[in-house]
Amino acid sequence: MSVYNFNAGPAALPLPVLEKAQEELKDFRGNGLSLMEMSHRSKTYDEVHNHAIQLLKEVMEIPDTHEVLFLQGGASLQFAMIPMNFLPPEKQAGYVLTGSWSEKALKEAEAIGRAVSAGSGKDGVYKRIPSPEELQLEEDFAYLHLTSNNTIYGTQWQQYPETSLPLIADMSSDILSRKTDVSKFALLYAGAQKNLGPSGVTVVAADRKFIESGREDIPKILSYQTHLKSNSLYNTPPTFSVYMLSLVLEWSKEQGGIEGLERKNAEKAGLIYQYLDDHADFYAPYAEKDCRSNMNITFTLKDDELTKEFLQKASEKGFIGLNGHRSIGGCRASAYNAVPKAACEALVQFMDDFYKNR
Predict the structure, then answer these.
(1) What is the mean pLDDT of residues 49-68?
(2) Domains, the chain, ranges and CATH?
(3) Which one is catalytic: 57, 157, 170, 207?
């Protein structure tokens, strides 16, 4: 039986990447041992590390003004590191609330300094993204923080705010899925475990001058300047995760780069959304149409019992990870980069079969 992986994260990895890693697992490129057994100070790992940085810059078209860092702790640690570095006592930070993760980011900032909501979709149960015109931006904002894609609610920013404020984005669930003008962001970050590779490494792309403007009266390990100066080798990095990241980036180039990935992701999500819209008497998308995510397609059925039956039958047919987040329930198909179009076609066929039988 085929298994279709729609997990929200850790998520699907490209099969060629898994096969390549398997091939090199025990003997990495003739060294006689696994990469996981090598020193992070070795020449061999140094080549892997720098190759991953250059590949990310190339595939994401990161400008020369920005640096790439490989950190740990996931997006959750970034929630704290960002205000620690960039929120001085005399200023406040603005956070756009579009779901649970942005709420958590704001809460961490409030523990460190003054932070406020600059816009929120909470009144609408996070079914939509606030428009740029709805945002309340203050001149004394040290930065404006947003979450580009919301895995729980299935919403995604379609147009980023135009602002002179330093713009920071949590892109954990849609990084590398579509073309992004990185130069507009003072800093963006992402846990790798959705589009970039396995869990373990957190990618940061940040303007060099913005990093250098950060506070210095904080622990060294939590300072972006520390990691910039040491090329992300201040402490032992997650070496195998960085290696896997480099393989995923090489695979991404073979898919046509960022343009190819964006086109394929739009096609995959479009298949599912079109079916949902055509059968609105039975299936209901959660997010408003102009805010829908191409990464996380969220929907419900007519009632809870039917939804439960749908998920049970889907599991029996080999569809993995379709349960919605425990906070809102329903269904969620996470169609990240590595999820093949065939899996989305199979899901639509299953949805149609279930519809006809009910």
Answers:
(1) 98
(2) 15-254 (3.40.640.10), 257-357 (3.90.1150.10)
(3) 170
Q: Which of 101, 157, 264, 268 does the annotation list as catalytic? A: 101
| pLDDT tens column, 129-178 | 999 889 999 999 999 999 999 999 999 999 999 999 999 999 999 999 99
CA atoms within 13 A on the CB side of 297: 25
In terms of Cβ atoms closer than 10 Å to its own Cβ (0-12, 13-18, 19+), residue 158 is: exposed
170 assigned to active site: yes
Q: Is the pTM of this model over 0.85?
A: yes
- pLDDT higher than 80, residue 2: no
- Quote the CA–CA distance of 261 and 253 in Å, as a whole number: 9
Sheet holding 141-147, edge to edge: 66-71, 202-207, 187-191, 167-170, 141-147, 92-97, 114-120
- Tokens (6 digits) for 47: 């080549």
The reply to whether 251 belongs to the active site is: no
Determine which one of 57, 157, 174, 194 is catalytic: 194
**β partners of residue 299:** 285, 331
194 catalytic, yes or no?
A: yes
Give the DSSP H/E element, type plus range, for residue 114: strand 114-120
pLDDT at 133: 87
